[in-house]
Description:
The structure holds 2 protein chains of 2 kinds. By secondary structure, chain A is an alpha+beta fold.
Amino acid sequence: MNHKVLISLTVLLMTLAVTAAPQEMQFDVERFQLDNGMTFLVVERPTAPVFSGFMIVGVGSAYEKTGNIGSAHLLEHMMFKGSRLVGTTDWNAEQDLWAKQDSVWARIERARQESRYIALNHPEKLAKHLVYIASLETVLDSLNAAGSEYVIQNEFDRIYTRNGAAQFNATTGYDFTRYYVSLPANRLELWFLMESDRFKYPAMREFFAERDVVAEERRLSVENNSDSKLFEQLIGTAFIAHPYQIFWEWRSEVNNLTRGDLMNFFRTYYIPQNTTAVIVGDVKLNDVKKLAVKYFGDIPSPPDPEPIHTEEIEQNGEKRVELYFESSPAVYISYHKTAFDSPDEPAFQVIERLIGAGRTSRLYKSLVLEKQLCVDVSVDVFPGNTMGDIYPGVLNIYAYPREGVTTAAVEAAVYDELERLAAVPVDPEELTKIKNNIDADMIWASYNNMGLAYYLGSAQALAHDWTYLYRLRDNLKAVTPEDIMRVAGEYLVEQNRTVATLIPLTEGEENE
Amino acid sequence: MNRTIILLGLLLISIAAFAQQSPRDMQFAPLKFDPVEPTRFVTENGITVFFIEDHQLPVVTMKAHFKGGDIYDPSDKIGLAELTAKILRTGGAGQRTPDQVDFDLEFVGASVGSGSSEHSFDLSLRTLKKDIDLGMEILADIILEPKFDTAKVNLEKSVTKDQIRRQNDDPGDLTRRVFYQTVYGSHPYGQYPTLKSIDNITRSDLASCHKKYFSPDNCIMAVSGDLTEKELKELLREYFSNWKKTGIALPIMNEAVTSYKPGVYYVAKDINQANIRFGHLLMTDDNPDHYAFEIMNFALGGGGFSSRMTSQVRTTAGLAYSVGCYPLFRPLMGVHFSFCQTKAESMSQALRMMFDVINDVRSNGISAEEMDLAKESIINGYIFNFDTPASLVDAYAVNELRGFPADKIKTDLEKYRAVTLDKCNQVAKYYLNTENIVIVVTGDKELFDKPLNTFGQVNEVSLEIE
Lengths: 512, 466
């Protein structure tokens, strides 16, 4: 008893200390915009003779439609194939060759469609038709092989690599696509030349092989991975209308994408006013400004792309889905939530931390440490952009039951915790903990160049103003126990819930 | 208005300049690699400390390394070091209950981590400067006065056992584990915890494991951040001066030798991809050949898109998203491994292609251009291994822990520069191998394009969890 009082007292003193001396991060950022609307953020940080370059484009897989699903991701892959200046010995000859390949592909696609009806109405002609398709495929293969005459393979990668690049990659999300690389400080102009050329003249070379690579990536990341397979079911069930429903592009779509699909996507969305570049490191603002104008200034700005109008339809009852797979049991639980600019969003972000951040979070404490129902439990938001999502996403809980514990028992324990959120005001010290962590996380976010570039670029791309991150911090700190009860009571309820359960398929059993 | 004119002017210049400028021709002065050198001192009770003062952000990072680790686990208690490290962090420390440790740290957004690797225990602290006293106190309590709370010991043991029960779920993890178990055989590097070995571990085993290795003269600390040397020394005095030397004598461990039966190790799993990993033992991490091997391997399969394996299997053939090969240099014998995930129907095609790439380099070597690219990439990118104060100071600590010379971080660059093409091709010939190797393939053999025995004698791996 005494012990407990003592602890509370210590905590109280610490709370006072923290409140008395808030340590809030301020970032020293210079922002400028080119006439074409492209935004640059620059942080001069001469600690080490290196810099990080980060580009974020306001488009992701949510902007795809049936028929071009996978465009955002495959385009991101193609952006590594080089450009007009990089990766080719003859840019013009390549264009001609690609046109030939594309017209053969169009014939293959048409012929494959026809084969269904030939099989139905003229089965005697099917064999001959299949030979015809095979001959077209052979033609395409030889046209693809002919491409190697002009291709300097992987030169884009090789130039960066030779110059010592680190953290060289890209990611395709739902709302955004991001391109990263860190280089020695004296390579600033190289970055501008390489990035601007691929943002002006993306090269669709080695297209058909890369399409296969992206299909293979799905096999690896989704079809052979129990977590992703279950997640695909969860998200696909939670959303009926909104494009967030597609966790990962399907192979049937990827396998039929064309260069035209990608170029349309590129021309619509990869435009200056939809792009932010962030440079953090041992650079000078004036150099960055000059180079930005020189390399990106001549890109025209077409009309703004249309936003996504589709809204998710209201959910009026729990949805459940099961997956049989050769893996251990798991249960994923999802609740529809708010977009980043909703007044309820700050409370949601506090709830996410309250139930899911760290060993003292409510779910970990209750399910793993106290009731010992789970090996692990975690919480996140989907799509889960830093600082929020453009359209309303979902809050997800992922639980992995202990041996012999049913998913039903795990679910019940999760729901108990969520109901408590709506029924009992959160302890002030728990709220103080979260607010302290918000400050600490902001400081750590800037610990390395790429981390800071990512953080600032994300804020700019999301809110069209990087200083939004200060406003968000203030809003998060203003969240009250009543806000949490209200938001939990409104959203974290049975009618708004989707549950996906993985049921182990033991060896030899067949999934019907 | 004026600005527009200037912009326009610049634009014209840039267009004019564009015609001839190609990034492949851009030249840059070599970058001087001249990182700060950490301060090194030894406390009265024998802790070796490396320190970099850095006031850019109000934060402090610390890492305490101890010689010891997984390879010293008794053969019937595999997992002891790992479990000890976990419970140091979660089992309570000093006056604090396990929950209080968690709460006090998370309340201020600080974190303490604890883990074991083959050759060490590593404890880390990340905190804002203002909470350094709290962080140091907890870190010191964990090192000096861990409580091994009985309930937490039981919980960690049973959670670890549940994780073992789940160890075959992910095809990638599964393939990796089977590869190391097979290639290292009975050597400690090839040992993984089992349900039984975890059952065998008692609370007193954990306490004596801690006692054995956690002596100040076995501790090397790396500290960086918003502190002065004086402040750091005062903190160390306050929280660590009661820590008495107990001395430490690590048993001599043997190097791993090749003991496996070469061939295919097939792991049956109902999935549509083949997960492939193959390779063999290589060299120890102090072998001077490793510089040339690393450069040669960069061209072979370690340099991502700039390597032959990725170019052929991924870029040209479109058979895999992830493919490559790497050397792993370890004190008691490293390995060379190649990996690939491809659709089950192209298993043999991809595997054959990878073998061909290796055999070609073994017989004909790499080209001078390939070597130059690899060297430039490693040399120009070297700085990124040390681009934050925390990574730089820790590199010095880890270096000393391993017993390498203090200036290795700087002299390594010269060693890479000095590698010749002859040397690259000599190590390729000497070390690369596609015959007497372990090939692990996880997947559904019914779907493979060729039977597995095309690649050697097939052994089915049992997935029974014991």
